[in-house]
Amino acid sequence: MKRYCVLIGGAALLVVACGGWLATCGLLGTCASMASPSRWPFAIALASGTLLGAMTIAWLTRVVWILAQAARAVRRMQRAPAPAALPIWAARAGALRVECVTAAAPVAFCRGGLRPSILVSVGLVSELSTDELVAVLAHEQHHVRRGDPLRRAMQQAMAEVLFWLPVVHWWADRRREASELAADRAAIHRAGRPPLAAALWKVGSYLETSSAAAFAGAAELRVAQLLGDDLRRQRIPSSLWMGSAAGILIALNAAWCLAHLFGSG
Q1: For the CA atoms of the chain, what is the radius of gyration?
Q2: Which residue range is the domain that position 52 belongs to?
Q3: Which of 24, 135, 211, 237 is buried most deeply by CB count within 10 Å?
Q4: Contact yes or no for 139/190 (Cβ under 8 A)
Q5: How far apart are CA 240 and CA 167, in angstroms?
Q6: Residue 121 forms beta bridges with which residues?
Q7: Range 238-256 average pLDDT
Q8: Mean pLDDT for all residues in the chain
């Protein structure tokens, strides 16, 4: 939140400075003499395209950076010999690519942008029963099938690039929760509710792996779904709408500044 306020404040200061410059320019009469009315449609289109292109490049760059960071983190993990029964558990869960790492913490997650696979820790294998492991693998295989690591990287990057639209960050969080609930439904279909509930309880609130679809994510909503509670549709808070409206005004002012520069050039 603090970072968001700093960024939005900095953007607002730039717009204020630009607006002051335009006002001064208008009072001096220099801008009016330089700008040709016939050039304004082109200038506005060029300014809008410039901003859109810059945001698209920033988004793609951030997606690649997120995936690269996640890949480096995974490469640093030491691989462990897979238990002899792991292929059997994976087959029951419908999982195709499963690896084992030496981490003592009970963790499982889906990683990889273009070819996602599942990683499970030695701690998880030793902690869970066979049915519970099948439930976890089925959950993660749903993430693999949907390509959730790439989806989440794209959503996270979009929320960060469009930081001036807080509703986008809210939307990305809701999509992440929805993907966890959908993966749980797939696990319930494969292994049943009790094994999934036991696995979720044992894994607990272990921190999510950055840019990965981790088994411990969105625990409260998942418990509510397991208990059969009504998952009401969440509404976007009015404060986020107001913040996004302010962000749109800032973006429009920035586009106007660029259009003025292009139109006066």
Answers
A1: 24
A2: 2-28+40-64+237-264
A3: 135
A4: no
A5: 6
A6: 101
A7: 84
A8: 80
Closest to 47 (Cα-Cα) out of 254, 199, 242, 265: 254
Q: Is residue 72 in some structural domain?
A: no
Using CA atoms in the order 200, 202, 206, 210, what is the torsion angle rounded to 10 degrees?
-50
Q: Could you tell me the two tokens for 108? A: 């499982």
DSSP, residue by residue, 41-86: HHHHHHHHHHHHHHHHHHHHHHHHHHHHHHHHHHHTSPB-PPPTTH
Average pLDDT over residues 40-61: 81
- Residue 33: pLDDT band with limits 50, 70, 90: very low
Please tell me the predicted confidence (pLDDT) of residue 26.
Answer: 47
Contact present, 152 and 134 (Cβ < 8 Å): no
Q: Tell me whether residue 34 is in a domain.
A: no
236 and 129 Cβ atoms separated by less than 8 Å: no
Residues in the chain, overall count: 265
Query: In total, how many domains does the chain have?
Result: 2
Alpha-carbon distance of 225 to 214, in angstroms, equals: 18
Closest CA to 92 of 153, 139, 143, 152: 139
Q: How confident is the model at residue 18 (pLDDT cuts 50, 70, 90)?
A: low
At 106, give phi and psi (nearest 5°). Answer: -75, 100
Name, in order, each residue with C-beta under 8 angstroms of 138's C-beta and a sequence gap of 6 or more: 93, 94, 95, 186, 187, 189, 190, 191
Place of tokens 């986020």: 240
Q: Is the pLDDT of residue 195 over 90?
A: yes
Tell me what pLDDT residue 114 has: 86
Distance from the Cα of residue 143 to its chain's centroid: 14
Q: Are 166 and 241 in contact (CB under 8 A)?
A: no
Helix (H, G, I), strand (E, B) or coil at 111: strand
Considering the domain architecture, whether residues 98 and 177 belong to the same structural domain is answered as yes
